[in-house]
């Protein structure tokens, strides 16, 4: 293998050479939340961090920007090592290889995104320590791992020369210039900061910088997790959601009408008797309906299993009451994602109670106080700084002998969500117990 050139131009930045092309390692990676104006967001972040060179990387789960400074030796037209290498693999991976005497390059991805802080050239001991920590945190659970000897993993080498051959390189692996016009004063500040970092920091400042880097990496991982959660929720949503939606519980729950329709439809097709097993109750939370049946006479578990296989996807669970009671499951898919305007609290409670009282149903109400979690990167709130949401949450329950979808038909549904719908057969009569939440201003 051709020995790569290494030219470290900053405290964390290295430049490697393969086949005459320059590859930059040590970029500062940030996820971008904007799908359309990601370059505008990248310029803003670059200006905040005083970094003027960027690599933009698109993956199925997130858009990332990797920042570096021209003063560290990186220039437009060079390649991002992490971008170029990640483009050669399907799925997550960790790759580590020797580039000089005691210098090893390391790149890792998680959920399709480059792991912040894991795009670097470092010593053998540091590389091994980072890989161990990633393994302990479960980051490598679904990843392909390519490491040389001495890294506590099965040796799985690869040909870095072949992976970074010119024919494999795309234009979007290249670094771009960010044009935001830093002032002379800002350039002077960046240069002075580089000098301080390079030669005159005391042990305290080194330790403090290390702690800040750990906190920043944790914040970036949390932001990446939230973006992945947002992508997952959008796959279930009727309407597009944004990061702010993750702080509004009602947007992540099915609408009142959709929930009642799905649970009532699933309950309505249940048989009251299956081969001598009698229906007792069912519970529906929008994700799954679980129906409970009780054995009578000479009926057997085998009878129920055989008769239910055409009605239910899973086999019955005979784990209750010495096998005399069985649970059967029906999986549901109900869309989420309505961020309708909320009603004033008094109006919302009055609408619900009046609607139910007209039908002879007496609801039980309670209020619960919730706090809004801070956005990623925000400082942790003290007890005196707990952030209360602008909305209120009430819980309610109601019992009725009318089918739940009929009981709630015509109710103003803004901010009203059903969390559980239970149907019980007692004295040959079906009873419905509805539990839910009201979100209001």
Automatic annotation (TrEMBL):
<protein>
    <submittedName>
        <fullName>Pilus assembly protein</fullName>
    </submittedName>
</protein>
<dbReference type="Pfam" id="PF06864">
    <property type="entry name" value="PAP_PilO"/>
</dbReference>
<dbReference type="InterPro" id="IPR009663">
    <property type="entry name" value="PAP_PilO"/>
</dbReference>
